[in-house]
Amino acid sequence: MELTLEVVTVPVSDLDRSKEFYEKGCGFTADVDQEVAPGVRIIQLTPPGSRCSIALMSGMPALPGQVRMEPGSLNGLQLCVTDIEAAHTALAANGVEVSPVQHVGESGGWEDGRGGEWNSFLFFTDPDGNGWAVQESPSPLSER
């Protein structure tokens, strides 16, 4: 049995502002933007090269047994790139406030600069404060 992660809901307060941020700032492709029922709008966006998308929604009832996340409460989302410096440059050029490139240093804390293989990161938040990490990988996903 395969279990594939294909959509992650990102809690936001303004769908249009968030759609613009993810499309223009991060380069995601908007796959869906529609009202699927009266008062229920879903926007699905996919990062370039990814098989997993994010969903921005309004008017959707909480899933049974789950608590609705507040805008800005999601942290730890992670994207992977093969060139962290190029990703930093592109995101910053598109108006995304990104951290310097960092790695986990010998002390166990974050230090500026590139680290070893799989150990270089940058960080940013969306307009609501949802937190993202970008990690440099040694090769594209299709080759791992």
Can you walk through the features of this model?
The longest helix is centred in the N-terminal third of the chain and has 11 residues, at 15-25. Helix content is 15%, strand content 33%. β6 and β7 form a beta hairpin. The chain has a single domain (7-60, 72-143), classed as 2,3-Dihydroxybiphenyl 1,2-Dioxygenase, domain 1 (Roll). The chain starts with 6 loop residues before the first strand and ends in an 8-residue tail after the last strand. By secondary structure, it is an alpha/beta fold. It is globular. The protein has helices at residues 15-25, 84-93, and strands at 7-9, 29-37, 40-46, 53-58, 77-81, 102-104, 110-112, 121-125, 131-136. A four-stranded mixed sheet has the order 1-4-3-2, with helices on one face. It contains two helices and nine strands.
Element layout with pairings:
Layout: E1 7-9, H1 15-25, E2 29-37, E3 40-46, E4 53-58, E5 77-81, H2 84-93, E6 102-104, E7 110-112, E8 121-125, E9 131-136
Parallel strand pairs: 1-4, 5-9
Antiparallel strand pairs: 2-3, 3-4, 6-7, 8-9
